[in-house]
Prior knowledge:
Strand content: under 5%
Structural class: mainly alpha
Order of helices and strands: HHHHHHHHHHHHHHH
Distance between the termini: 23 Å
Largest sheet: none
Mean pLDDT: 89
Shape: globular
CATH class of the largest domain: Mainly Alpha
Low-confidence stretches: 1-6
Number of helices: 15
Number of domains: 2
CATH architecture of the largest domain: Up-down Bundle
Number of strands: 0
Amino acid sequence: MKNKEKVKEKPYAQLLDRIMLYASVFMIMGLSDAAIPILPELSDSTLLTNGAASSLIFSSYFIGALLTMIPFGVLADAYGNRLLIIIGLILTLISGAAIIASDNVWVIVIARFVEGMGCGAFFPAAFAMLSNFKQSGQYIGEFNSLLNLGLAAGMGLTGILVSTGIKNGLILFEGLLIPTFMISLMVLINNGYGETVSKKSEVAVVMLRSRKMLIHPEYSQIWLLSFILFGSSGVLIALYPDFSLGSLQKGALGAYLASIYLGAMVTSLLAGRLQVQRDILVRAGMVITGAGALAAVFHPIGLTLMGAGSGLGLVGLVTGVAYLKVEKGLAMGIFNTCTYAGLALVPLISGLVLSVLGYSGSTQGYSGVFVVNGILLMVMVFLPMGALKK
């Protein structure tokens, strides 16, 4: 049974919540991406080859997020979203401090896993809070825009600061995250833990019910769309540097990769303000992202197009999940699990397929993968998407 506890809202409570969420997502994403440009340096002190160590450091973040999104989403329903936001920030701060302080690759791997857990605590609660606002579509668009801006800033500023010190980008975002945490703590004190929609004693029961939600005939389409949209985008992000090797300078490559986030940022803002049915937004996002994947075979501007499409798709999917007749924390936990599963697994599977077929390192092989992903994205348009129309 649901136990929806209503708490009288204080003046400016929603504005304070938005400040907390917007500042937090920018800093959390900035810190997470600040490690990417310096992966080879972070993996220097290991007996593993640098490539294997870099992959381990990179992947441990996604593993931490994947394993905790649903449990933390359920806990947000039972204990309040703001409390889980604070837990997410604490875990992120701890992991950032550990990466800065240590040069031991195993400590860094564990810290990245903990950082992923922080992400797992933050996102289901954040999206659940945003979906409760009257102007949820607009606010989700703004939130996603800042998410992408944080990712771009993390990569860009680390690249600029690396000449002054390998970990200076990490130090910058860790330092900025401390006042963000203090502001969020004050919001928690002012606004409370947040509305609860399930009993604490029902946490285990709700966790078990998540299995049924995963295979629900209508809901499963949303999870599949999330997995494919972000997984296919992840393939291009992961493989495009190798595909463009020798034909694109590093500076230009970095700019085009950053344009993925900038494209998503712009369309997220637009999508949040459009009075368009959710399934139409998702279909448009799938088509544009697919077209971007195909165009990227011929010119890197396709990456920008792909980012623009994914921004539309994300806003449509998140607002759609917000209207499902289930606990929002649980629903957002499953949604985020599927997006991170796509980001982690689809590039890995694509790389393995290339290797098995003997096309690893081949321009033709990479082109084939991009084309297949582009077509797959466009095929998804023909799903009924019934749950997004309600």
